[in-house]
Amino acid sequence: MASAAARIQGMAGGKKPERKVRILVGKPGLDGHDRGAKIIARALRDAGFEVIYTGLHQTPEMIVNAAAQEDVDGIGLSILSGAHNYLLPRIVDMLREKKMNDVVVFGGGIIPDDDIPKLKKKGVDRVFTPGTTLQEIVGYVRERVKPRK
Protein backbone atom coordinates (compact mmCIF):
# COMPACT_ATOMS: atom_id res chain seq x y z
CA MET A 1 0.00 0.00 0.00
CA ALA A 2 1.43 3.40 -1.02
CA SER A 3 2.04 6.06 1.59
CA ALA A 4 -0.08 9.21 1.64
CA ALA A 5 2.90 11.23 0.43
CA ALA A 6 3.44 8.84 -2.50
CA ARG A 7 -0.27 9.02 -3.43
CA ILE A 8 -0.21 12.82 -3.32
CA GLN A 9 2.99 12.88 -5.36
CA GLY A 10 1.39 10.56 -7.89
CA MET A 11 -1.67 12.82 -8.18
CA ALA A 12 0.59 15.79 -8.85
CA GLY A 13 2.12 14.07 -11.87
CA GLY A 14 5.09 12.72 -9.93
CA LYS A 15 6.19 16.14 -8.75
CA LYS A 16 6.48 17.09 -5.13
CA PRO A 17 3.94 19.85 -4.43
CA GLU A 18 5.59 23.25 -4.05
CA ARG A 19 5.23 24.67 -0.57
CA LYS A 20 3.84 28.10 0.13
CA VAL A 21 6.25 30.98 0.55
CA ARG A 22 6.75 31.59 4.27
CA ILE A 23 7.07 35.17 5.49
CA LEU A 24 7.94 36.23 9.02
CA VAL A 25 6.57 39.64 9.99
CA GLY A 26 8.51 41.16 12.86
CA LYS A 27 8.47 44.26 15.06
CA PRO A 28 12.02 44.84 16.23
CA GLY A 29 12.85 47.19 19.07
CA LEU A 30 10.81 49.09 21.60
CA ASP A 31 8.15 50.38 19.22
CA GLY A 32 4.74 49.49 20.65
CA HIS A 33 2.59 50.09 17.57
CA ASP A 34 1.77 47.05 15.48
CA ARG A 35 -1.40 47.92 13.58
CA GLY A 36 0.53 48.31 10.30
CA ALA A 37 2.42 45.06 10.80
CA LYS A 38 -0.84 43.21 11.43
CA ILE A 39 -2.42 44.72 8.32
CA ILE A 40 0.58 43.65 6.21
CA ALA A 41 0.54 40.17 7.76
CA ARG A 42 -3.16 39.77 6.97
CA ALA A 43 -2.74 41.06 3.40
CA LEU A 44 0.10 38.59 2.78
CA ARG A 45 -1.92 35.76 4.31
CA ASP A 46 -4.96 36.65 2.21
CA ALA A 47 -2.71 36.63 -0.88
CA GLY A 48 -1.80 32.99 -0.18
CA PHE A 49 1.46 33.28 1.72
CA GLU A 50 2.11 31.50 4.97
CA VAL A 51 2.71 34.22 7.56
CA ILE A 52 4.30 34.05 11.00
CA TYR A 53 3.86 37.17 13.14
CA THR A 54 6.33 37.45 16.03
CA GLY A 55 4.60 40.20 18.00
CA LEU A 56 5.92 43.36 19.61
CA HIS A 57 9.27 44.15 21.23
CA GLN A 58 11.39 41.57 19.44
CA THR A 59 15.18 41.64 19.55
CA PRO A 60 17.13 40.91 16.37
CA GLU A 61 18.15 37.60 17.97
CA MET A 62 14.54 36.64 18.60
CA ILE A 63 13.54 37.48 15.02
CA VAL A 64 16.43 35.56 13.45
CA ASN A 65 15.90 32.55 15.72
CA ALA A 66 12.19 32.49 14.83
CA ALA A 67 13.09 32.77 11.13
CA ALA A 68 15.42 29.78 11.42
CA GLN A 69 12.92 27.70 13.40
CA GLU A 70 10.10 28.49 10.98
CA ASP A 71 12.28 28.02 7.86
CA VAL A 72 11.06 31.28 6.34
CA ASP A 73 11.80 32.58 2.88
CA GLY A 74 11.42 36.25 3.71
CA ILE A 75 11.30 38.61 6.68
CA GLY A 76 9.20 41.75 6.67
CA LEU A 77 10.12 44.21 9.41
CA SER A 78 7.96 47.07 10.61
CA ILE A 79 9.73 49.83 12.48
CA LEU A 80 8.55 53.21 13.67
CA SER A 81 11.00 53.89 16.48
CA GLY A 82 13.89 55.41 14.55
CA ALA A 83 16.26 52.52 15.30
CA HIS A 84 16.09 51.14 11.75
CA ASN A 85 19.74 51.95 10.91
CA TYR A 86 20.87 49.57 13.66
CA LEU A 87 18.13 46.94 13.91
CA LEU A 88 17.55 46.08 10.24
CA PRO A 89 21.25 45.64 9.30
CA ARG A 90 21.79 43.68 12.53
CA ILE A 91 19.10 41.21 11.46
CA VAL A 92 20.68 40.89 7.99
CA ASP A 93 24.11 40.29 9.58
CA MET A 94 22.73 37.65 11.93
CA LEU A 95 21.06 35.85 9.01
CA ARG A 96 24.42 35.77 7.23
CA GLU A 97 26.07 34.37 10.36
CA LYS A 98 23.50 31.55 10.34
CA LYS A 99 24.13 30.90 6.61
CA MET A 100 20.63 32.15 5.78
CA ASN A 101 21.78 34.63 3.12
CA ASP A 102 18.92 33.61 0.82
CA VAL A 103 16.23 34.93 3.18
CA VAL A 104 14.92 38.17 1.67
CA VAL A 105 14.69 41.01 4.20
CA PHE A 106 12.37 43.92 3.57
CA GLY A 107 11.04 46.62 5.82
CA GLY A 108 8.69 49.47 6.21
CA GLY A 109 7.54 52.18 8.54
CA ILE A 110 8.75 55.64 9.34
CA ILE A 111 12.12 55.57 7.60
CA PRO A 112 13.61 58.75 6.15
CA ASP A 113 14.27 58.65 2.40
CA ASP A 114 17.96 59.45 3.01
CA ASP A 115 18.35 56.24 5.05
CA ILE A 116 16.91 53.89 2.42
CA PRO A 117 20.04 53.64 0.20
CA LYS A 118 22.17 52.95 3.30
CA LEU A 119 19.82 50.15 4.38
CA LYS A 120 19.85 48.63 0.90
CA LYS A 121 23.65 48.75 0.86
CA LYS A 122 23.64 46.81 4.14
CA GLY A 123 21.42 44.06 2.71
CA VAL A 124 17.82 45.18 3.19
CA ASP A 125 16.21 44.29 -0.13
CA ARG A 126 13.39 46.85 -0.13
CA VAL A 127 11.98 49.56 2.12
CA PHE A 128 8.33 50.60 1.99
CA THR A 129 7.31 54.02 3.26
CA PRO A 130 3.92 55.37 4.37
CA GLY A 131 1.44 55.47 1.53
CA THR A 132 2.61 52.24 -0.10
CA THR A 133 -0.40 50.17 -1.15
CA LEU A 134 -0.98 46.64 0.07
CA GLN A 135 -1.11 45.54 -3.57
CA GLU A 136 2.41 46.92 -4.12
CA ILE A 137 3.76 45.02 -1.12
CA VAL A 138 2.02 41.78 -2.11
CA GLY A 139 3.28 42.19 -5.69
CA TYR A 140 6.82 42.73 -4.45
CA VAL A 141 6.71 39.61 -2.26
CA ARG A 142 5.28 37.53 -5.12
CA GLU A 143 8.02 38.73 -7.45
CA ARG A 144 11.01 38.73 -5.12
CA VAL A 145 10.51 36.04 -2.45
CA LYS A 146 10.69 32.41 -3.56
CA PRO A 147 10.75 29.17 -1.55
CA ARG A 148 14.24 28.42 -0.29
CA LYS A 149 15.89 25.16 -1.28
What does this structure look like?
Helix 3 (60-70) crosses helix 4 (84-97). This protein has a single domain, classed as 3-Layer(aba) Sandwich (Rossmann fold). It has a 5-stranded parallel β-sheet, with helices on both faces. The chain is an alpha/beta fold and 149 residues long. The chain has 6 helices and 5 strands.
Keywords:
5 strands, alpha/beta, globular, 5-stranded parallel β-sheet, Rossmann fold, 42% helix, 6 helices, 149 residues, disordered N terminus
Number of strands: 5
Q: How many domains, as an integer?
A: 1
For the record, the CATH architecture stands as 3-Layer(aba) Sandwich
- Determine Rg (CA atoms, Å): 17 Å
Order of helices and strands: HEHEHEHEHEH
Arithmetic mean of pLDDT: 91
Name of the CATH homologous superfamily: Cobalamin-binding domain
CATH topology: Rossmann fold
> Beta-sheet strand percentage?
15-25%
Unreliable stretches, pLDDT < 50, 5 or more residues?
A: 1-8
Tally of DSSP helical segments:
6
How are strands sequenced across the largest beta sheet? 2-1-3-4-5
Major sheet summary line: 5 strands, parallel
Q: How much helix is in the residues?
A: 40-55%
How would you briefly describe this protein structure?
The chain has a single domain (18-144), classed as Cobalamin-binding domain (Rossmann fold), CATH 3.40.50. Helices cover 42% and strands 16% of the residues.
Helix and strand arrangement:
Layout: H1 4-11, E1 22-26, H2 35-46, E2 50-53, H3 60-70, E3 74-79, H4 84-97, E4 104-109, H5 116-121, E5 126-128, H6 134-144
Parallel strand pairs: 1-2, 1-3, 3-4, 4-5
